[in-house]
Amino acid sequence: MTVLVTGATGSTGSAAAAALVQQGAPVRALVRGPDRAALLPAGVEAVFGDLRDPAAVEAALTGVTAALYVSPHEPDEERLAETFVAACERLGVRLVFAGVVTDSVFLRALVGVMLPHYRGKLRIARRIARSSARPVLFSVTNFYQNDELVREDILAGTYPLPVHGSGVNRIDLRDVGDLVARALTEPQFPGGIHALCGPASVGGAEAAQTWTQVLGRPVRYAPEEWQAASARRLSGHKLVDFRKSYGFLARRGMPTSARDVARMTALLGRAPRPYGDYVRDMAEAWQAVS
Asked: Which of 88, 226, 237, 287 could share a disulfide with 160, CB 3.0–4.6 Å?
């Protein structure tokens, strides 16, 4: 069962590709060129092409049973998604999507008002949910791995990611990758929308305290430094998206619900990884590199 991964050098796509390789699944990745192909895990077949090229998309999807679509941070993201979804429908490929998803009318309205740049992403999710491609949609709020954007800041003693004190639903990308890999390779994996989460909400001050405990030295919560920190790591449309998203998360908490944790545990077949475990793993990796 060969599967296709888009965004395989990005956060969700790379986690899915790694999980697929680990379970021995034949996997190919749609990438723009050899420079991106060099970033793929060993065992992933690179297929060169661009989401803006319908012929390249169709060629990449030919012969696969399921495909992961991750919407890129691009102004024409809705057109790119339509090209991919329509090709999956024509070829009978099961479509798996990870991104901004909700089946709640209230949440769609809230996000539309407070995060207007997400309106296109919500329309993409609705298009996929109504698709004939037997879709599986994973709704993700925030990754633990976003901390890696501010690695230098954390190691220098500040945690600049602005997150409301009541906490935000965060999750380890490795858990996301495991579930996406299962959805791509198990025909019986349940379709529809699945809200993914970690075991508990995490606020900015709490994150700083966790890093303090693991590193054994003070890490101060410093949301006022986010603008400068993000400009050093990001650019273009992705920078705009991240700043607006974290502006929202700084003003409003998005707590994890016990019901979502129970559902996540059932999907994984185990408890989701806690934030503290991620921090310990990451600190060990950073120290090894140093």
From this structure: 226
DSSP state of 28: E
Whether residue 54 contacts residue 102, with contact meaning beta carbons closer than 8 Å, is answered with no
Distance of CA 105 to the CA centre of its chain: 22
CA–CA gap between residue 269 and residue 203 (Å, rounded): 26
Q: 234: which residues sit within 8 A by CB, 6+ positions away?
A: 149, 242
**Which DSSP state fits 105?**
H
DSSP code at position 99: E
Can you identify the CATH homologous superfamily of domain 3-139?
NAD(P)-binding Rossmann-like Domain (3.40.50.720)
Burial class (CB in 10 A: 0-12, 13-18, 19+), 277: middle
Q: Tokens for 167?
A: 């906490």
* Cβ–Cβ < 8 Å for 15, 41: no
Give residue 228's identity as a one-letter amino acid code: A
Token couple for 145:
């791995």
Pair 287, 222: CB distance under 8 Å: no
pTM for this prediction = 0.91
Residue boundaries of the structural domains of the chain:
3-139, 148-167+198-255+274-289
Mean pLDDT for the stretch of residues 11-40: 94
Which pLDDT does position 105 carry in this prediction? 47
